[in-house]
């Protein structure tokens, strides 16, 4: 974790530990947030830590306020009692509220990859809960995901179930015991990275840059991280699905501008991404979808940081947020 701390410090971010259970996060320029310069909340996915944003941060405008947490239970953040995406998302925003120390409404944009994308999706639907914490959610971007309910339904296709084999395995209550008993945590995270990463040399180089594998491997040496990450997937198999079922039945959908950035492999070859997400948006005109360059796999912000920042930056400018 020293590598992660130093890496973010070198990029001009300050480390904070807030809340109980404690949330580890890195931030800058929070006091400079405005409607035209909102706080970008960058939320990582599995099997990583917040360090996955190390290549995108230097490409963002120096004036951009940033809040980059380790997901609860991942990295250096302590686990929660519950890991459904609403509880996790509100815990992250509560940590941010502690740091902003503002009595006025704070504008934010959520940008989440993988599990962080699922947290961001949940908060975009539950915008009233976000508002109650004192935030104005201006827009949301998710990276390389489809809605959780849609992803589970795709397991009817054997090809999809082979690619995403870890979903049902990690959701089983006995998964942490198996993983820790056989010392398989590093194997699982390494195979998870390799199996859905892009196959090009640039993708591999970027993923390994900054000793990232040491950082992620050290995190998964902690049995608590294994336990929490499995609790994350278990929640995705029940509570998160139940919430999404209720949303769809009630016609409760995303009402903020929504950007989906996805890799050219895997999801792009399994789903009609724009059509899928269109069913979860109140107004399809607020939906933007971008497929990354050929050869880019699941880990888009690390594999293609320049394209990630360019696409999201252009989107925010078109919304007149930047």
Automatic annotation (TrEMBL):
Belongs to the AB hydrolase superfamily. Epoxide hydrolase family. This is Alpha/beta-hydrolase. Keywords: Hydrolase. One of its GO terms (molecular function) is hydrolase activity. The keyword Transmembrane helix does not apply. Residues 40-310 form the AB hydrolase-1 domain. It comes from Rhizodiscina lignyota. The keyword Hydrolase applies. It comes from the Eukaryota.
């Amino acid at each position: 974790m020293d590598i992660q701390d130093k890496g973010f410090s070198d990029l001009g971010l300050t480390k904070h530990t807030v809340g109980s259970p404690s949330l580890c996060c890195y931030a800058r320029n929070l006091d400079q947030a405005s409607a035209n310069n909102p706080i970008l909340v960058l939320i990582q996915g599995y099997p990583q830590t917040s360090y996955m944003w190390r290549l995108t941060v230097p490409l963002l405008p120096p004036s951009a306020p940033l809040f980059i947490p380790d997901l609860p239970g991942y990295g250096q953040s302590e686990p929660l009692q519950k890991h459904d995406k609403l509880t996790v998302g509100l815990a992250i925003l509560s940590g941010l509220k502690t740091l902003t120390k503002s009595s006025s409404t704070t504008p934010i944009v959520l940008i989440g990859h993988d599990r962080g994308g699922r947290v961001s999706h949940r908060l975009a639907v539950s915008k009233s809960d976000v508002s109650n914490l004192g935030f104005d959610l201006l827009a949301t971007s998710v990276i390389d995901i489809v809605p959780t309910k849609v992803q589970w339904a795709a397991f009817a296709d054997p090809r999809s179930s082979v690619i995403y084999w870890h979903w049902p395995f990690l959701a089983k209550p006995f998964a942490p015991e198996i993983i820790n008993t056989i010392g398989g945590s590093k194997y699982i995270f390494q195979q998870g990275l390799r199996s859905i990463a892009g196959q090009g040399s640039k993708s591999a180089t970027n993923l390994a840059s900054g000793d990232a594998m040491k950082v992620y491997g050290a995190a998964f040496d902690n049995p608590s991280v294994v336990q929490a990450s499995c609790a994350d997937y278990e929640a995705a198999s029940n509570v998160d699905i139940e919430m999404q079922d209720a949303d769809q039945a009630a016609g409760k959908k995303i009402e903020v501008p929504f950007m989906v950035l996805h890799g050219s492999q895997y999801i792009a070859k399994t789903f009609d991404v724009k059509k899928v997400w269109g069913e979860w948006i109140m107004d399809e005109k607020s939906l933007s979808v971008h497929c990354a360059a050929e050869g880019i796999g699941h880990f888009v912000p690390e594999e293609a940081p320049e394209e990630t920042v360019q696409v999201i930056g252009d989107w925010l400018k078109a919304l007149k947020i930047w």
